[in-house]
Amino acid sequence: MTQPLEVKTWNAEQQKQYLALGYWHRLSLSTELTNWCKQYANNTAIITGDKKITYQALNQQVELLAAGFYQLGVKPKDRVLLQLPNCIGFITSLFALLRLGALPILAMPSQRQQDIHALCELAEPTLYIVPNKFLGTDYQPLVDNITSSFPAIQVIHIDTEQDPEIALASYHSSQPYEVTEAYYLDPAILLLSGGTTGTPKLIPRTHADYCYNARTMAEICQIDGNSVYLNVLPIAHNFSLSCPGLLGVLSKGGSIVLSKTTSFDEAFTLIEQHKVTITAVVPPLAQLWANAREWDDTDISSLQLIQVGGSRLEASIARQIKQAMQCQLQQVFGTAEGLICCTRLDDSDEVIFNTQGRPISPHDQVLIVDEHDQPVVAGATGEMITKGPYTIHGYYRAAEHNKTSFTKDNFYRMGDLVRLTPEGNVIVEGRIKEQINRAGEKIAAAEIEQKLIDHSQIESCAVVAVKDSRLGERTCAFIITDNKQITLTDIRDFLKQQGIALYKLPDQLEHIASWPLTSVGKIDKRRLSIIGEQQMKINQ
Ligand code: J2J
């Protein structure tokens, strides 16, 4: 028997309050989408390649696909694993699944067997929607592996090179189907958490809270029917899906331009061609783009706002980005679990360059606490904990993990060390969670450690983040072994064979004779990060 879908949610009083304030609508995300398609029928919704798809046409494609998925047997509350890159098929599949009341699990195209396998075990999807090939990766071996372990799963292959107007057309159906209006406080989608453990965690975002998140960000970014948003980051990520991203932009009648890659060649050309007004990137990418502006003369003057978030942005680089891109900059400090902080368009440069802004909802509660969960004195650094109208109360099917990730009164522990300025802006100072933030992509140290320790010649290991001028942070594995010949390539190959995604493979390997320990006898990972940085300098 499958486990129930129910997840812990807001108490009755909070629910009443958020509904009364108009934050939440008593509507499913699917009904919101249908309403936007009707309201902005003739506006351009999606631009991909040389095709422009209106809201009306998008809605028609979604109708046909929902009917097709229905014929395949997709039912309300079925989990469906969606692992697609930035393509029209992602958008139509997502919306069609929502229309049937199914629950999409949003996996990243970069994930491999280890993650996809774990997601299938955790959420028991009935359908897996995956590209056949994308940017040189053939997904067939991954699909073969998954179907051999989970023979009941149906697979839909998407040809991402196909004409967007007929993408998925072979799955279209004109048969009638049953639209299911989901309850607005049921989970609408399962997002992937950055995670700190060996197995992936899924974030159940509800219809009401996710829509509120997207609309609020759209309002802060002043999105309207003339806005053109360039989607360069993976569309399945919370930043590009709802901050304001795809959903926020569609809620206001704007257009989404899909970019396949993050390269400035493609991005700048799309900005010029479609008069893009807003885009969202991670700091290392923003810096690459800013450097490229020194010699690139593509006309990107339509750009009004560049959102930068996902990892730490140094003030000096923030300044350089604003100058090079000749538009407003917005720092975004957010999490797929909920809370989003950002600078506002009319903030001073001082605030925009030096802080990560403030929460987007007046009802976001943010506390900065010490190791005993006691609030620190004003202005001091501590761990950020939060709850509010769009922050989850628990991960999907993770009762044990939820006990440590949330406080007794339902605050989510962000795992970030921050301080607040007197004006209430957040400054991110560091992190207590054991995670590597590699150019915005999050890697749980525990996951890599658990795999490395299976290596017959590794006695003990620890994985830490080491400062990196290009990536922000790189992944450094420390090992204790008698075999001093083991190289970085050896351990990367070893991990690759275990189905670990490429972006999670260590960038650096250090042999160590014994562990530096903290006063309580744990491996001193802070010390290891420093050693890793020193070693890298010596080796350069
Ligand atoms: C430092 N660390 C940051 C920042 C996130 C918008 C933007 C980002 C995310 C995201 C997101 C940071 N400076 N500006 O979902 O909608 C680190 C923190 C945080 C973790 C969350 C969005 N912005 N971080 O990055 O769920 O450590 O969401 O807790 O992937 O990224 O990661 P994620």
From TrEMBL:
Group of enzyme by EC: ligase
All residue ranges annotated as the AMP-dependent synthetase/ligase domain in the record: 34-396
Its annotated pathway? Siderophore biosynthesis
One Gene Ontology molecular-function label: acid-thiol ligase activity
Catalyses which reaction(s): salicylate + holo-[ACP] + ATP = salicyl-[ACP] + AMP + diphosphate
Tell me its EC number(s), please: 6.2.1.61
Top-rank taxon: Bacteria
Q: Which residues form the AMP-binding enzyme C-terminal domain?
A: 447-522
Q: Keyword set for this entry?
A: Ligase
Name under which the protein is recorded: salicylate--[aryl-carrier protein] ligase
Which stretch of the intact protein is present?
1 to 540 of 995
